[in-house]
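<backbone_tokenisation>
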Amino acid sequence: MKKRFIALSLALFSFGVMNYFYGQVPGTLNWYNGKSAGMNTEKAYSTLKKRTSTTVIVAVIDSGIDIEHEDLKGKIWTNTDEIPNNGIDDDNNGYIDDIHGWNFLGSPEGNQNQARLEKTRMYAKLNQRFADADPAKLTAEERADYDLFKKLEKEIMSERKDAEANIPQYEQIKAALPMIREKIAADMGKENFTVADVEKWKPKDPQLSGMKDLAMLIASGELTEETMQEAIDHYKSTLEYHLNPDFNDRKMIGDNPDDFNDVKYGNNDVEGPDALHGTHVGGIIGAIRGNGLGGDGVADNVLLMSLRAVPDGDEQDKDIALAIRYAVDNGASVINMSFGKGYSPHQKEVYEALAYADSKGVLLIHAAGNDAENVDEKDNFPSSSYSFQKQKLGHYITIGASTRDPKEHLAAGFSNYGQTKVDVFAPGYEIYNTVPQSEYKNLQGTSMAAPMVAGVAAMLKSYFPKLSMLEIKEAILSSAKSYKGTKQSLPGSEDLVDFGTLSVTGGVVDVSAAVKKCLEMEKAKG
């Protein structure tokens, strides 16, 4: 699920703030490419300035990419074996007119945007079997399915109840914002106050003494009528689509999502109806560097292959498996996967696609997820380690999201973590980059951290083409800037833990150090 909406937890009546932002100063442009808690990208390019690069293809499995964005000109992959718009599968790969990738959420009638969560789809199927079942008469095998049915029913009903309660709360916050903003401005004596103004502000009105964090969110643009409306729309979609068992989210496409041999579906509209998430991801990887527009991409010589398979809701396992295979077969060296879900009914088929990519030397970069959970203990699919898996996926990296605050809040408050299943952290907080219609926006999530690493991998492969993607993975992980031993807030909590316990490496990606590692590897190979 492309969780581009991360809820602000606001106590309306006290205007208190307990959220993911920790009062940090909003991001400066391209902070993630800089020093401190950034990735030292600019320093890496200084080291590489006398070297030439080769073009690397990165597949972006996501919500779609605005392939006409001004900051992505020349950065979109083109299938040169296909003749545009002739209605013929010229390259015989099974996809007609797949010029810039493929849309697995499309049909001749249009494009799917909304989808149920996977657990809602599973519940709907189980409900057909067990709605009127007598538990005492079930077989042992049926009882296991029945127990899952009741578990999913409880989860879905609880989350629907929360969504119903949140809508009026956010509507009230939205309505109250102008008054709140006016009171803060009046006390501060400045109508259009900035983050710097808030930092210096000492409230005169005692009623405003606890509102500094709130004022910071308003000044930074994180808390606006627009973001509150996004929250309202999110919860309405949750009720109408994500947690609605009766919503048929595959009707338009017309395939059988449980039949992996039913592959004649989709269309070549690789942008789709809502490409905000995928365009932002694509820009992080490869937006034009140094042109003064938006944020710079990490990789400078890259082509983005758009594979639209992630709706507003949970992705289908079949779409993901087919998208991975398409990327591998069409020349991608890196696949970015900024999506994930808690249930996966076709784990083996997805694993087989991942293993196929692994066997072909294609690097898979996966976002750890935005639930502030330990993924060593709680499932998040796809995964580098399935219960039935016998062979390790060597070409797989799972990424947590880091911030610009290396003191106590280096791990973003929303980021999943895990000492065995999350490999490394990368910047995923307040990332300013491309969104559709040649615009730009700050977004955050592990969805932003994963393309940081996908961009790094592509950049390294571009300048060190003789190194395998497995060697490049090793360079990225072994050179990560270590924060082991530093006390950091556990995501979702203010408890302090050793940052080394949150991932395998206990570090944040450092591009400059990775370049030095690649130079050493190259020299050793002769």
